[in-house]
Amino acid sequence: MEYMKEPVAPSQGNILCCQCGIPILPNPANMCVACLRKQVDITEGIPKQVTVHFCKQCERYLQPPATWVQCALESRELLTLCLKKIKASLSKVRLIEAGFVWTEPHSRRLKIKLTVQKEVMNGAILQQVFVVEYVVQPQMCDDCHRVEAKDFWKAVVQVRQKTLHKKTFYYLEQLILKHKLHQNTLRIKEIHDGLDFYYGSKQHAQKMVDFLQCTVPSRSKSSQRLISHDIHSNAYNYKSTFSVEIVPICKDNVVCLSPKLAQSLGNMHQICVCIRVTSTIHLLDPNTLQIADIDGNTYWRHPFNSLFHPKQLEEFIVIDITRVQAGKLGAGAGMKSKKHTLAEAWVQKTSEMNTDHQYFCRTHLGHLLNPGDLVLGFDLANCNLNDEFANKMNPQNVPDVVLIKKSYDRTKRQRRRNWKLKALERDREGMDTDDERQYQDFLEDLEEDEAIRKNVNIYKDSKIPVESDTDDEDAPRISLTDMLEDLHISQDATGGEGSDMMTE
């Protein structure tokens, strides 16, 4: 569509075109539009086909000379990037309007309809509409090159936890996925007692360290090694290493606090149960239901260890249980847990059912246990405690048994589980039997603890769970309202969703 825009006084009459002789309104060129178009092409010099580079790995476009930007299909940002490609050619005309023309998403073509004006012969203004086609050329960006190389890195974050159980690592993995902290990693490598995160820049590594210190109780230190030095430009090339050590305490651990630390926490008993590890260590006194939170700095000033590892959990059967009223705490004591109920119980090991040997204990699981239930716990009466603080305690203050959690049939719980979690893509040799058991422990913790579950993205599983009449009716389950749909959005080669398309 081409026409001339020139205000004409109504009183003026028509004139004849100097080229073809047809009657026209007077204009400075004294030509009709058709003849003027034959004489002058205002789009001359503007390329009608341009190439743009697109990285299929990270779905970004190249903005010369070396910047890669994220642009959705048909977006304002993509339109700006395309117009910059022909900015020099458009300097001779006046751009009136620009918009996308619909193209097949997989055609690797972008079309933009442009409306331009230019003053031609004797001051006449000619307006013209034309289409510029952009060919989307795939090209891998520098960051993705480094990811594919897997050996090019400038900073590494080494996360370690000196424990036999990986519950804290599984929880940390879900937090990283939820907050998308893994997107800038070049490579994630799993080793025996932790994970290594490799980055292309020190800033991304520092961001991960800051995130870890905010989400789990930990301490960190850093170092750097000189790789090369250019004496002419005075440029240094370093490789940085950040070491992050997470406190060696996991959920369901029994710990023994130092007398000084127990006193500072409101005169708690030294023997406590770790009920949760988030940004702090959440401890509970099973004798009084008193709770306390210990952050990373407090732990490193007054360190303590777990008395048992998870493999030492033993199964007990509840013979009798009586719920009791928790007494008033002394002056300076902390808060009491409102989610637990104090009870006195007689229990017996399932491995000693042919004997009359029973154990008496106080427990915080009075709201869950009934006579005949199975419960997991630690036997302190028949073990050798190799702990600095526990060995100095009065034996009368050490309980015979510490109950940890109610026992359910794991096979039935797995069979009816209708949800799943996502996992980080990392280099590892494979999960052994012990890793699988620990992962199932973590999934059961999510079902039982709402406080941990709200920090984790849980997705619906496409498989149909198998229900049985013999399933434990009281076993904890995750409701559908806590689950997210596992969406797989596949974007085409020209980016993601954008604004409405413009048709001719």
Can you walk me through this structure?
The structure is a single chain. The protein is an alpha+beta fold and 504 residues long. The protein has 3 domains: 2-132, no CATH class; 142-246; 254-407, no CATH class. Helix content is 18%, strand content 31%. It is built from 10 helices and 25 strands. The protein has helices at residues 33-39, 76-85, 142-149, 167-178, 202-215, 259-264, 296-301, 410-415, 433-448, 450-453, and strands spanning 2-4, 15-16, 23-24, 49-55, 60-63, 67-69, 94-101, 109-120, 124-138, 155-161, 185-191, 194-199, 218-230, 235-246, 254-256, 271-277, 281-284, 291-294, 314-323, 343-349, 359-363, 374-379, 401-406, 419-420, 459-460. The strands form 6 sheets. Strands 1, 4, 5, 6, 7, 8 and 9 form a 7-stranded mixed sheet that branches. The chain has a 5-stranded mixed sheet with strand order 11-12-10-14-13. Strand 8 and strand 9 (124-138) form a beta hairpin. The chain is elongated and about 120 Å long. The N and C termini lie close together (12 Å). Mean pLDDT is 83; it is low at 7-11 and 489-504.
Q: Could you outline the blueprint of secondary structure elements for this entry?
A:
Layout (H helix, E strand, L loop, with lengths): L1 E3 L10 E2 L6 E2 L8 H7 L9 E7 L4 E4 L3 E3 L6 H10 L8 E8 L7 E12 L3 E15 L3 H8 L5 E7 L5 H12 L6 E7 L2 E6 L2 H14 L2 E13 L4 E12 L7 E3 L2 H6 L6 E7 L3 E4 L6 E4 L1 H6 L12 E10 L19 E7 L9 E5 L10 E6 L21 E6 L3 H6 L3 E2 L12 H16 L1 H4 L5 E2 L44
Parallel strand pairs: 4-9, 10-14
Antiparallel strand pairs: 1-9, 2-3, 4-5, 5-6, 7-8, 8-9, 10-12, 11-12, 13-14, 15-16, 16-17, 17-18, 19-20, 19-22, 20-21, 22-23, 24-25
